What does this fold into?
Amino acid sequence: MGSPCEIQFRGCPVKIAKDVVGKLEKEILRLEKKYSRFLPDSTITHINESAGLPDVVTVDEETERLLEYADTCHTQSQGLFDITSGSLRKLWNYHQLEEKQALPDSREINLALEKIGWEKVIREPGMIHLPIPGMEIDFGGIVKEYAADCVAAKAEEEGIASGMVELGGDIRVFGLESQHLPWQVGIRDPFNTDNAAAVIEIQSGGLATSGDYERYTIIQGKKYSHILNPLTGWPIEGFSSVSVLAQQCVVAGSAASIAVLLGSAGKAWLDELGLPYLCIDSDGTRHRTVNN
Amino acid sequence: MKSRSLLALTASALALPGISAVVRADTPPTETSLGYRISSYEEDNLPEEFLFLGSPDRYDITVHQFQLVAPVGDNYGLSLNSSYESMSGASPWYALEPFDGNKSIVMSGATIHEQRRDYNISLRRYLDNGNYAFNIGTSKEDDYESWNGGFDLQRHFNNDLTTLSGGVSFASDDINPTDASLFNRVTDESKRTSSAFFSVSQIIDQNSLFQSSLNLTHHSGFLTDPYKLGDARPDSRTQAALSNAYRRFIPSLDAAMHLDLRLYDDNFGVNSLTFEVSWYQNLGDNWQITPSLRYYSQSDADFFSAVNDFSGTVPHNSSDYRLAAYGAVSGGLQVQTTLDDVTLTFMVERYVTDDGYSMFDGANSPALVNFTRMSLGVGYSF
It folds into this structure.
């Protein structure tokens, strides 16, 4: 998944743990192979390569459900969470922009925006069609978190009583025993990535963080996040990071992403959502409802 | 009340196939495993001071055990067990009034050579909150044939923290002693056994567990030992045993302590108590060493006497040391190592009995047995 991955079990003999970890690695690789937009043979690549062509792409049930989930996120975020916003990412190629120290111009942004819009995607059960050449989808903000949930479910199926899965900062804790002795989990500090901004206890469920401390660039002295507003074509200003706790890591991940996309309205949206969160403003101010 | 957004996101997330995968409380085997174990059981000789006649060499038994456990489909596990046992040596035949000091035991000649073959098959079905299994088996010796079958069921409650188990089993044995005409033994006898158990297991916290089980067994038919002279036992025996187990894992030591206490009573008049403590010490990733210590004591059966009663005036009588009052202490050590898919287990145990160890008053037997047991096992899973 292009990110560090850590799996911990409690109270499990080493031999069994090794066997189970082997199976979990396969599950992660399976999802990566299927949903990475960098791999030439992935489902996502097939969908993206067919953009603008007359043919539709058939998708299996898992992909269909993920697209459905993306649709729900799109609706709940008033269109801000949009899995077609990939061409904006190309435009906001931070490496190049940082080298040139220049921002994309408005003509380029408008061209990119033409290829964006979940509402433009044609979907039928088991099928998807991207009607505009160059249009792209990606499951960023969904699939890594979904993978953490899948891995946890698989570990439980294998009989692991208690465990924690971390995929690139997104965490899923599982198992009944976790309810007796919760897991201590650190939330990274966007201003000092070696330190934890907070350490919280999780008995079960997922913790996901969205924010600009993992990928950002400074252009003309200003920090631009990797969260892009698909409606304006510009990076979102607001929170440095948002961490959300939910029963499922995928819900935590999309809630955090939506809160970041909502910018200044994100905190109110999270309050209404009712999930515990920790938001860190760009000046370092913290807003939290998660417990220690 | 949850927000509408959260409900929408959660409902959509729960529709994702990988998230709400079936979590079985018990998982069926996912790998096939093969096991073999050879055990040697050697009884010490009967001390010469008690030997009146016959051979002092008591039983030596070698046992070969095979096991195959394999998944069948997604929800079943199949287990096949078989064992082959070969036995030689002498056993106490009858006991007389002590003569010439303490000499009272008449042993059989060291001519007993016997083989036993045992086969058992069990099929277990795994459910969301438990499992159940049927098993059937047979056991054969030259003079003996037994068929048995059983059913057991386990269910998990209370967020899987509590497990209730129960089961029933039946056995039917045919007994046809060898050399029957030579020694005026019975020729064609049978025995029926039915047994039921109920058990409660409770997870106390992530490192400890308590289990208590009650086992009731009823035997009817020919319960006498046909190879002993003057042995006559009641034709029905009802046994009750209450077993309690406590398991505690100690993370800082990477070790687990097992404590077991078993209380037993039957209508032969035998009561007993067993207490066992074992320490499972992990050493690194691949080694485990387990010392254990067990104490056992029982009272004598109502019809036990150290000297056989040949008067013909008592309906039941036996001088079998297993029905005497005695105590026993045994110590064992097990070493286990795992190399990839192979597990090797070596075990040695020394068992010593003595009247003086008994916590029960009652008649004692001079024919108590001490033994040494060793086994070497290899397991392979793939």
Q: What stands out?
A: The domain at 43-129 of chain A is CATH 1.10.3980.10 (T-fold).
